[in-house]
Amino acid sequence: MSLDCRYLDLLMSSDVPCIHFYRWEKKTVTYGYFSKLEVLNLKRLKQDKWHVVKRPTAGGILFHPYDFAFSLLVPARCTRASLAYLAVAELMQDVLHPLIPTSITSHDGEKASPFCMLHPRHFDLMYRGKKVMGGAQRRTRFGFLHQASISLKPPDPAHVKLWVNGVQPDFQKTCFSFADHLRVDTEKARLLIERHILDFFTKK
Fold first, then answer.
1. What is the CATH number of the domain that holds 146?
2. N vs C: which end of the chain shows fewer Cβ within 10 Å?
């Protein structure tokens, strides 16, 4: 996460967007800059050897073994800040279209949630009522950082029950499963999406 912040500072001298794929050495939960952690059972997560990390962007809580996480760093001269969310959503819709025909949400969902993948927000990617991709941004006068999450598979409800306090989030109902869609396990789904994104950009 700190690396993205350093890259964001370097945009002042760059004309070229950058994409950064995340890999996790440990089981990792990240949370948005303004998130509150009361909903997480931090003691249990620590016992289960989870790494809990704050993101420099906003947005909700994410369990990263179940997603494909990446960031885009875009210099200010490449797009107007007011169009940043829409630009990323349209770009990723094109990138993922050969794998799945998503739609872009035009408004926030009726409910707010501390968990990123639980309810749709404006400019998320959706498929048949389930959330495929969400993201959040941090902007400076030099450009913006967009951190995004593509759902590989909903978190296991039995595990979520241990990690979350209070009302249990129903990720099975709201999260798209790329692994099931592609009929592979989560690691193969991760590699397929990564290769597809790289192919899309290198062919441009």
1. 3.30.930.10
2. C
- In the chain, how many domains are there? 1
144-202: pLDDT as tens digits: 999 999 999 999 999 999 999 998 999 999 999 999 999 999 999 999 999 999 999 88
135 lies in which domain range?
A: 2-202
191 to 21, 23, 45, 68, 152: CA distances (angstroms): 11, 11, 27, 9, 11
Model pLDDT for residues 56-114, shown as the tens digit of each residue: 999 999 999 999 999 999 888 776 655 688 989 999 999 999 999 999 998 776 677 89
Q: DSSP label at 16? A: S
Q: What is the DSSP string of 67-124?
A: EEEEEEEEEGGGS-GGGHHHHHHHHHHHHHTTT---EE-SS--SS--SBTTTS--TT-
Average pLDDT over residues 4-23: 85
How crowded is residue 199: how many other Cβ atoms within 10 Å of its Cβ?
12
How far apart are alpha carbons 123 and 147 in whole angstroms? 13
Tokens linked to 12:
């002042």
Query: In 3D, which of 68, 70, 79 has the Cα closest to residue 21?
Result: 70
